[in-house]
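Entry type: protein chain
Record version: 2
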Amino acid sequence: MIAVKFDDLSLAFDFVGSAPPSENNACISLDTGQVHWTSALNPLDEEVPPDLETSDRYLLLPHKTELDLGRDLALRFAVSELPHCYDRIVGLFRRKGAYARFKDLLDSEGALERWYKYEAEATEKALRAWCAENDIHLTERNGDSAAQPVVAPDPRNRASPARPGR
């Protein structure tokens, strides 16, 4: 089992999800736990291992759409938080630029902060489940700067993930 800092994984996941699938990528070394970032359109300054694309010793992070954190998440939010706007939100996602219009609508409904919280919680839960499925041990930093192990949730259990100090 490899160990990866949750913050490193989260930043890399955001990077991957900030562009269309396969444009930005991040891989975890199964030997070291180090996260390597690459971009098809914008070369990065980071030096990547020469065998990154050919070795089976790297695990590619999923894109947010692979974890149902794109349009489907927005629609689940609409069902639970803004059912009166559901049809309108579905219509937004039929055209390009949907997220900007979605956030504008949320802002006008006073629900933008609730969306950010909902999205962050769903993202963390999905990332922790993905790590558990891929035998990745997550570590985090707490107030004393010591790395603390984080117990990944059982993907079959829909309860909140375990956290140190709780």
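Comment: Residues 67-118 form one domain.
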